[in-house]
Write a structure and sequence with these properties.
The complex is a heterodimer of chains A (324) and B (326).
Chain A (H helix, E strand, L loop, with lengths): L1 E14 L2 E14 L3 E5 L6 H8 L7 E10 L2 E2 L5 H7 L4 E4 L3 H4 L6 H10 L6 H14 L5 H4 L9 H13 L5 E5 L7 H18 L2 E6 L2 H5 L4 E6 L2 E7 H6 L4 H9 L47 E3 L2 E3 L7 H4 L2
Parallel strand pairs in A: 3-8, 3-9, 6-7, 7-8
Antiparallel strand pairs in A: 1-2, 1-4, 4-5, 9-10, 10-12, 11-12
Helix pairs in contact in A: 4-5, 5-7, 7-8
Chain B lengths: L1 H28 L3 H5 L6 H10 L6 H13 L13 H36 L4 H15 L2 H15 L12 E3 L3 E3 L4 H33 L3 H8 L4 H30 L2 H6 L5 H10 L3 H29 L11
Antiparallel strand pairs in B: 1-2
Classes of the chains: A alpha/beta (324), B mainly alpha (326).
């Protein structure tokens, strides 16, 4: 059943140079316990989508339209009070850079206890105990003593574990993870991924995993949504999207990932650069970079749905073209 | 911590010794005090007698050694003018300056941080803009002129507050004369304290605002919001504590100069503090007093810097004093 549904979300940044439509009509749903991978390059609007759900978009940006229906209520236009009651309690977030997400001058226990007590009226001792259990759950050794430490006394991977522990404190329904492994070493990445996978299975939490790294989501996500220039260009079950991409951009992304067996072979790359949001090409925003583009692409294609999959392209790839 | 403090005290001692030498040489160079001390019609015999009595006939190195030897025993010499130990005179004047600067410190930090926080959180608001405009005024107008304006408005035109002097004082701890415990003294203190506050407050406002604007967009503030923490707590715990780090540095540095050189304010309001004493001593070329005063200043500033370093470690856990293992 659908837990969260984002419908035609519009998040715009009103800058001096003009209106940047960072998120322009994004729709997707998330079922209870499902992991959705939101994939795209930097500037594709994937992080802004995540922040928009919780109303955490900073000035000069704001949600200009659409709905975010969570468990039956629309979060767009909801007051700061009720939204605050939801943040961290039912929808939690994990940020990209663990070096920056914990306040450097506050001890871990302070930061965890305040998170507990922001929503539940419990004693300090009880909140501390819950913090300790949460740290234990994410695999931090000797949590009792670690609680007394400051963030700078932790490594990057450990800090991200602390952030995950904070996100888990209230056993939320949804966790929005904004590139949580990007800033980490590959080995630490793998550890955190395994940890998250285990925790998702144990707690049944649904997750939106925002990333530019297809390798990361391939083993983790149930479904993928690929974003380009503020729009979703392709969605579908992870294996199908990765195995047989329909959108040329998706294929470009997949081919940009280095393959271990092709030693010495040149990597395929997508030509050109991500367009500026202030000056998007007319029609399909990808057409200037697309090898299949023609005159038809100057008109914005609709998201064409076929079974569990959808693609926004006038000339989608066929199965024969994608299977080598 | 202890190792650090000991090493730090050693450094401070070195600073004091170097300063003593420089100050002594500097004061030696600025003229012959005998010319000012004796009557204009005094004969050569009279001048020679005074010169000998003050020990000014001896060569410079000998004078310096005498000074250094006495200084080691805590004797910074007798004032030429008052004929009493210079240190004693300074210490008599010190409470007046200290209480004035303390009030100014509390006011400028308290008001400066709160106003700077408001201006930093809502930079585009009317309040924010007004505060910033006011702070520009605050440190652009010369201190002596501000002081005279305050006297003109509040003493001359409105007649609310006294224009100068210290008012009634009471003795506490057996000998310390303070004014803030009497109503009259307190009333006398208002204008000079405001005068001393305005400039420093403006400085703190600008610093606090700039730092607040740097801290607010940080990820950890957003993460705190994503945790559902209230705005009040985010402002007063997450933002304020980070914002105070540079503010403490600057306030600490400024405090030393505020105590040592409250000269302008003390002169404008005839406040009988150390700053006024210094100006008078320079005018009279009272060498021992000038030297003793500057030595006191060095001691005060060195001490304050030490205290600031310790406060630092309380505010910012990433700072560990060198010498402490962590």
């Amino acid at each position: 059943m659908t837990l969260l549904s984002v419908e035609n979300l519009q998040t715009h940044f009103f800058t001096r140079e003009g209106v940047a439509k960072a998120v322009d009509g994004v729709s997707f749903t998330l079922a209870r316990g499902e992991i959705l991978g939101l994939v795209g390059e930097s500037g594709s609007g994937k992080s802004v989508t995540g922040f928009s759900i919780l109303g955490l978009v900073d000035e000069p940006g704001r949600v200009a339209g659409g709905r975010v229906v969570f468990d039956g209520t629309d979060l767009v236009g909801m007051g700061e009070g009720p939204l605050r009651a939801l943040r961290g309690k039912r929808i939690a977030m994990i940020f990209q850079d663990p070096m920056m997400t914990l306040n450097p001058v506050l001890r871990i226990d302070t930061q965890m206890v305040e998170a507990v007590r922001a929503h539940d009226t419990v004693s300090h001792a009880e909140a501390l105990e819950r913090a300790r259990l949460a740290l234990e759950k994410v695999g931090i050794p000797s949590p009792e003593t670690r609680l007394k430490n400051y963030p700078h006394e932790f490594s990057g991977g450990m800090r991200q574990r602390v952030a995950i522990a904070i996100a888990l404190l209230h056993e939320p329904d949804v966790i929005i993870a904004d590139e949580p492994t990007t800033a980490l070493d590959v080995t630490i990445q793998a550890q955190i991924l395994a940890e998250v996978q285990r925790l998702c299975e144990e707690t049944g939490v649904a997750m939106i995993w925002i990333t530019h790294d297809l390798a990361v989501v391939s083993g983790l996500a149930d479904r993928l949504a690929v974003m380009y220039a503020g729009r979703i260009v392709e969605t579908g079950p992870t294996a199908e999207v990765l195995g047989a991409p329909r959108h040329p951009y998706t294929r470009g992304l997949i081919e940009s990932v280095p393959q271990g067996k092709l030693h010495g072979a040149r990597l395929r790359q997508i030509d050109g650069m991500t367009p500026s949001l202030l000056n998007l090409p007319a029609g399909c925003a990808f057409h200037p970079r697309c090898p299949r583009a023609d005159a038809a692409c100057r008109v914005m294609p609709d998201l064409a749905t076929a079974g569990p999959r959808a693609v926004r392209c006038h000339h989608p790839l066929t199965d024969e073209e994608t299977t080598p | 911590m202890l190792v650090y403090l000991i090493r730090r005290l050693g450094q401070s001692l070195l600073v004091v010794v170097v300063m003593a030498t420089l100050v002594f040489l500097g004061v030696y160079a600025i003229g012959n005090p005998v010319d000012i001390l004796v009557a204009p019609d005094a004969g050569a015999a009279e001048i020679a007698r005074v010169t000998e009595r003050l020990g000014l006939d001896k060569p410079m190195w000998q004078q310096f050694l005498t000074f250094a030897g006495n200084a080691l025993q805590g004797d910074l010499g007798d004032s030429f003018v008052y004929g009493r130990p210079a240190l004693e005179i300074i210490l008599e004047r010190m409470p007046a300056t200290l209480e004035l600067t303390f009030v100014a410190l509390v006011l400028s930090t308290g008001l400066g941080v709160s106003l700077g926080l408001v201006a930093g959180l809502w930079p585009e608001s009317v309040a924010g803009r007004t505060i910033m405009a006011g702070s520009i005024l605050g440190f652009s107008l010369p201190s002596f002129w501000q002081g005279m304006l305050l006297i003109m408005v509040f003493s001359v035109m409105l007649g609310w507050l006294p224009a100068g002097g210290r008012g009634d004082t009471v003795e506490i701890f057996g000998g310390l004369r303070v004014s803030f415990l009497t109503w009259d003294g307190l009333v006398h203190m208002i204008l000079p304290a405001i005068n001393l506050t305005i400039f420093k407050m403006s400085l703190v406002i600008r610093l606090a605002r700039a730092t607040t604007r740097e801290v607010v967009p940080q990820d950890y503030v957003k993460f705190a919001r994503a945790k559902g923490v209230s705005r009040l707590r985010i402002t007063f715990v997450h933002v304020l504590k980070n914002m105070m780090i540079p503010v403490v540095t600057i306030v600490g540095l400024e405090l030393g100069s505020m105590i040592a050189f409250a000269v302008v304010t003390e002169t404008v309001f005839s406040w009988p503090g150390m700053g006024k004493l210094l100006i008078d001593s320079i005018n009279l070329l009272d060498r021992p007093l000038i030297v003793a005063y500057l030595m006191m200043t060095v001691l005060i500033i060195v001490t304050i810097n030490l205290v600031v370093d310790v406060i630092y470690t309380l505010l910012d856990p990433r700072v560990r004093l060198a010498g402490t293992s962590a």
